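Exercise 7. Predict the structure of NADPH:quinone reductase from Streptomyces indicus.
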Amino acid sequence: MRALVVDHGAEGHLSLAEVPDPVPAPDEALVRVSAVSLNFGEVHGAAEAWIPDGTVIGWDAAGVVVKAAQDGSGPAEGTRVVTIGEQGWAELRAVPAARLGVVSEDADLGAVSTLPVAGLSALHVLRRMGSVLGRRVMVTGASGGVGRFAVQLAARAGAEVVAVSRDPAQAAVLRGLGAAEVHAHPASVERPVYGVVDNVGGPQLVDAFARLEPHGTLISVGRSAEQDTVLPPEALWGIDGLHDRTIRTFFLFGEPAADFSADLTWLAAELTAGRLDPGISRRTPWTRHDEAVRALLDRRLRGKAVLDVG
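Solution. The predicted structure, encoded as tokens:
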């Protein structure tokens, strides 16, 4: 089969190549991939020298089951699915039932492929905050993949969403997705917030933390700023310190045995019904993957990039 593999001699460190077909374990379905979605972390990580040439990477993919799991778990042959795993940017992938969701016949598999990492991350982070009904929730990096879904899901849950995006052109878009306020930086947010979904890290995390109300929580999801986060002493101690606030870290696979099937199925149904907007900024055949990769690495792409396989 063909796959996008790490190639340190290529621009973007990825190229199309022939690789062996995957051999499913008894609890894995074999899926023929129709479309994949790129995440910044993956394309950035492909440049790491420790990843050998020829490695198949990629978390997000959607397609059709061509061989059901031998142990009877998961959907039957012919079922359309959205999947999450480590080697998805290929014509075939083997996926356990816990890491695939069922997709309706009228769904756009390209749009659905945007959901696994970004949609699941936004959903699970908001669940960790508890009820946000009637509360102010800040989302930094709001025009990125996780950020866009977090804005929409938080608004759906009854939050007053405060979106932070450094791109002024995204203000109207984010308001259309449910944001009550849009700011270029957390420092310009005047009223305190109950929770923060932080996708940026670095100084933005520090300024977002300073906007928390007592007993508020900031959840660190990503660090697109690629800068260290250092809280000044005055933020933590002294009479004017930010006491009784919490910073929590998040990793989607923090629980290795987590079952994502129900959440993926729900997210796919919401997207197909038009209640979630994936924000696809670029969609091309995977033979033109280098264009999408470069746009992501150069920070020229807001939202999601989709590659149609074939």
